[in-house]
Write a structure and sequence with these properties.
Tetracycline Repressor, domain 2, 12 helices
Length: 246
């Protein structure tokens, strides 16, 4: 069963996890053009990935069995055994692909030449749009991974750490481009980790409550939350489209 204490542990320890890549051996370009929740690949391994997402999203990780996944994939259990040692390995590989797809989708949308606030807006919009468009995948990546043990949670840690690093670029942007932003140098070292943790917690709650379709509408609020520490209230409010800049 899902234990909400896992989420708290994930948010507390994200900064201590090394930012290791999770895309090794994964066809990221291919993932960017396919929905793992709906597309059926000729490769039986990818069919099993599809089936793992569908089964875990509907039954939960604990109640998912190899037999069920193989049945949904339309392959004998012997074929499953040829590709994966057990359910846990299959789930971790599936999670790797989901995270790689999320990251590649965001990277593909973000122009590195844009000013930092615009990159955060475009990246956050892409992330929320992708999550909202694929509710089964979102449930696996944002909810069920917390029930699948330390190795699965570590993958979420690493994703959060990478997002925190991007967000913390706001320090340099504010120092160079924002007037009267002296407070930035006094921001706590873990401010970006705290902000990312808060955003992940909000997204997690929506997905857990089967309200994934609401994520796109939350862009303004979450963007304000992300920009506030670095740009201040008025600028963050204006860029997030929640009010006029003073």
């Amino acid at each position: 069963m899902f234990d909400h204490r896992h989420l708290a542990a994930a948010l507390e320890s994200v900064s201590s996890v090394p930012a290791e890549p999770v895309t090794a051996g994964i066809d990221v370009d291919g993932l960017a053009h396919h929905d793992l929740g709906t597309h059926r690949y000729a490769d039986p391994r990818r069919r099993i990935f599809d089936a793992m997402i569908e089964t875990v999203a509907r039954r939960g990780y604990d109640l998912t069995t190899i037999e069920r996944v193989a049945s949904v994939a339309g392959v004998p259990t012997a074929v499953f055994d040829e590709h994966f040692e057990d359910k846990r390995e299959c789930f971790l590989r599936t999670l790797d692909e989901l995270i790689a797809r999320l990251e590649s989708t965001v990277v593909a949308r973000v122009n590195e030449q844009l000013p930092w606030p615009e990159r955060i807006e475009v990246g956050l919009r892409a992330l929320l749009t992708e999550l909202a468009a694929h509710p089964d995948s979102s449930r696996v990546a944002m909810v069920e991974c917390l029930s699948a043990g330390d190795a699965a949670i570590a993958r979420l840690h690493r994703l959060m750490a990478r997002l925190a690093g991007i967000l913390d670029e706001g320090r340099a942007h504010a120092s160079e481009h924002e007037a009267d932003a002296d407070w930035v140098e006094y921001l706590p070292p873990q401010i970006s980790t705290a902000v990312v943790g808060g955003i992940v917690s909000i997204v997690h709650r929506r997905v857990l409550e089967d309200r994934t379709d609401e994520l796109g509408a939350m862009l303004g609020d979450l963007l304000y939350f992300a920009l506030l520490p670095y740009l201040g209230h008025d600028r963050a409010l204006s860029i997030a489209g929640l009010g006029a800049e003073a």
